[in-house]
Structure formats: structure tokens, C-alpha cells
Amino acid sequence: MRIGWAVALAATVSVICSGAAGPAAASTAASRAQVAAKLTPHTPWTPPPDAMTAPLKAALEKLKADDYPGVYALAKPYTERPDFETLPETVRHLAWHLVGLGAWQTDRGPEAHKAFKTSSKLAGAIGWDWLYRSYTAANDKDPHDAVYAFTTMLETDPEPLAQVDDAFIGELRRQALELPRGEQRLMALADDLLDVDWKPRDATGDWSDFWLEHAARLLDRGDVARAGKTMARVTSPDALASARADRRFAPLLRQDPARFDVAKAHAARLAATRARMAEKPRSVGAVNAYALALFGMGRAAEVVTVTQAALERRLDSWDDAKDRPWLLDIQARALRDLGRFDDALVAWRMATRPEIGGGVSQELNLADALLELDRPAETLTIVGGVKPDKISAFGRMVAANLSACANAQLGDRAGVERAFAALAADRDAIPFLEMSGHLCAGDQDGAAAVLIALLKDPETRLEALADAQDYPEEAVTAPFRRAQLARRRALYARPDVRAAIAAVAAVGRVERQPYPAVY
Fold first, then answer.
1. 388, 477, 483, 495 — which has fewest CB within 10 A?
2. Alpha carbons 378 and 182: distance in angstroms, whole number
3. Are 402 and 386 a contacting pair, CB within 8 Å?
């Protein structure tokens, strides 16, 4: 997907909307049984008299009954008793863990974080101490501790990992890069996930870009064997096209060229998503994944058929009806690619409706659709209604890109310059959107400067090379997108851009792709 040219189809709800991810209810439920079994002191020690530990035993019973105020009311005073520090570490660990759980579930976030920082350091600590330390650190706006605690959990007791939402790991991935020595922190996170053979809970999610970037960093360090193990997790055709283009991946391509076959990857993704849809007939997410696989192969008419059949089903026939806005969004893009622009707008507008579950992501996608159809004033109306302080850097970049393009169409140079400043302020979130904004405003020099910088930076090179590939054009394109594609061709034809590509790309690796790019 070429994110630089339009708002992404990605599962952006958890990314565009601001706020750190927190523990799923399932994590707490799953931990209860472990707390009862594993938090009971399990190292040799001389137990205190029963009367001394009675409050903790009572707190454990409260925990089993989901009575978190009761847990806190018993465990907190226990840590304040005068002889507390003389008790065995395993007892103190149990007390602090229970304080943390009680505090977290009764909206005492900072106190919960402090409790888990303590419990995780004491004898008897288990993976849940480190996981809840990570959760509460993220909630406490302490990304350093959130990433550190999570990687420590992976390295010491990864059992709780099966209960962690994919969105939280995605948030840690983002936070890791923003910290000092962010690349090393992200390396540690990805390495640990690789070592424990982590697989996303959402089987329809695609983490190919995550693993591709990790493989590239490993290759930068000369670890070809581990990079090969990492690339075994990369299934996305776009990601494989990126790897084929980057000279760093040449050793892996020579070892196993079949793994990098883009056309086969498209076919494999289609088969896998079709099978998943059959296995999960009550999953909108599975339908979305299959529709996206069809869309990636240029089969828009089939996308409309599949999505329409799903939309006609009763709401109670789905287990994840919350994903219906994305079903409508995918259908809208297919209708647009078939030239059915009015029908596409109907679907996009429906996707924004609150009763459907639409939110900021769908509003921005509607704004993008209106821009493509040469209706920039309506685009700006929607973008103007999105409050920058209520969305993440990702969302702000999307809004700023739309603003740059819409103001350029309206001839408002001051508005374009304000949008450029906003894009520059958050450029690390989605660097390609800064290039896109300059491109649609007719600033080829500015777009080229951004693109060349992306090609030179190892962190962004893969996406830049993927965008540089030779994609067939769609038979039908909306007016704005037709103009933007023409600007793109002119950009990649520039001598300075061609030279920047040649400096990092494998020989002959700007290739003709089997299907049009997905926008």
C-alpha cells in the first residue's frame, strides 16, 4: 500500500485515535488463575504465622471474585504495617502485586505502576508483574519503562503474552522508536518476539512490515541467518517487493528466490484469507482481509460482491460488528476503482455514521474521497472539524496532507504553507505523507527532497523503494488521483531521484509489479 498517496486502508482506529493502549479485560481474567497458583510463595522460606498472612489470603479470595476494591482495601494497609520489610520477599511480592491489581482496577493508575515496579523486583515475580508494569507504565506516560518491562517479561516469563492485544504491541513498537536509542530498543523488542515465536492474536492482521524492518536491521548488522528466520514471517506482497528492491536483501534473495515471488505472495494471501473467512464465518475482520486481498490483485468487482453480501447480513450474525465501517470503506474504494464514484461516496458517508461505529478514521477517509473527486472545500470542512489534540501524530499527518492538497486545489497558498508546517512537525509518524503533501501542491523540488531523504535513511528506505516500483495504472481513476499519479511519474523521472534510487537499490530491482498499487 502506498500510504504517501492517500489515507491508508489500515486498521488505523488504534493508531489515529490518541491515548496509550491498556490491558484487555481478558488479561486480568486470565491472570486470576495464575495469581492463585503462581503468586503463592513458591521458593523455600519459613512462613510467617497464619495470622500474619491472613489479609493476603483474604485478598486472594477477593481477587478470585473480581472484587478489586476489596483486594485493594486488604492489600494496601498490609504494605504499611510496621514489620512489612522484615517479611520474606515472596510475601512482600504477593502484597505489592495485589496492591497493583487493586489500584489498577480502581483507577489509581500511578499507584498501580509504582506497585508493579516494586513487585517485579522481588523474589516470586512472574510474567504478569512485568506485563502489568508495562501496561501501567504506558498509562502513566512512561514509555521507557513500558518498553523495558515488556521486553523483560518476554525474556523471563512470556506466558502472559498470549493475552496481550496486538494494538498494545503496536503501540510499544511506536514508542520504542521515539525513545533515546530507539532503534536498539525496537531491535530488542522484535528480537524477543522472534525468540518466543510470537504470533498476533488477530490472525487476519499482517505484521509483515514489522518483520521486514527487523530483517533489514539484522542485515545491517551482518546477521544473515537471523534475518532469514525473520523474513519467513513476511508474507505481504508489498513487503516482499520492498525487499527485492533493497540491495541489503541480496544474500537472502540468492538463498531462497521463491520466498520473494510477489505474484505467488498475492495468490497465497488470497488463499489464506479465503480459508480464514470460511473458518470464521462470523468475523467481519476475516471478510475485510479477504476483500483486501482481492483488492490488491485488482479484482474490484469481486470486492463489491463480497462486501455487499456481508453488509446485507443481520448485525447479530457477526462477532465483531465493530469492523463494519472498514467493510464499507473497502467497498467504497472498490466502487471508486470501478468508476462508480457516486455509489462510492454513499458507502464512505455511511462508514462515518456513529451508529455503524465510524469515527475519525472514516471521517478522514471520506475527506480523502472528496478530495479525489475535486471537492476540496468539503475536504477542508471535514478536516477542520478534527481536533489535532484528540488524535495521534499519525492522524495529524493524514489531516495535514489532506489540508495541503485541498488548499492547493483552492489556490490558498497560506493554507498550503500552514499544512506544510504541520506535516514537518509530525514527519516521523508517516514520512511519505510529507512528500505527498508537497507533490499535490505542485512543489516537485520539496517532494524530491523528502523522497531522497527517505531513500537515504535505512529506517524509511524499504517503503521508499516499494513506492518506486513500476505499478500498472488502473483503467479508471478519479480526477485528482489521475493528476497526482502524473506528478508521481514526473517525480520518479527526475535525475536526482533516479540517482538516489540507484545508490540503494539492487541492480535491476525497480521492477514491473503484477498489480496496480493499492490506494
1. 495
2. 39
3. no
10 Å Cβ neighbour count for 169? 19
DSSP states along 448-468: HHHHHHHHH-TTTHHHHHHHH
Neighbours of 170 (CB within 10 A): 18
SS3 352: coil
Q: Which three-class secondary structure state does DSSP give residue 246?
A: strand
Which residues lie closer than 8 Å to 390 by C-beta, 6 or more apart? 17, 18, 360
**Helix or strand run (H / E) with residue 269:** helix 262-279
**In this structure, what C-alpha cell is assigned to residue 450?**
523528502
The pTM (predicted TM-score) of the whole model is 0.77
For 152-203, the pLDDT digits (tens) are: 999 999 999 999 999 999 999 888 877 777 778 889 999 999 999 999 988 7
Distance CA 310, CA 347 (A): 14
Question: In 10 A of CB 443, how many CB atoms?
Answer: 19
Residue 389 buriedness (CB in 10 A; 0-12 / 13-18 / 19+): exposed
* pLDDT mean for each 10 residues of the chain (519 residues): 26 29 44 53 46 84 91 95 91 93 94 97 92 95 94 94 92 84 85 94 86 94 95 93 89 92 94 94 94 93 97 93 94 93 94 89 92 93 87 89 95 95 89 90 94 89 82 74 87 93 68 64
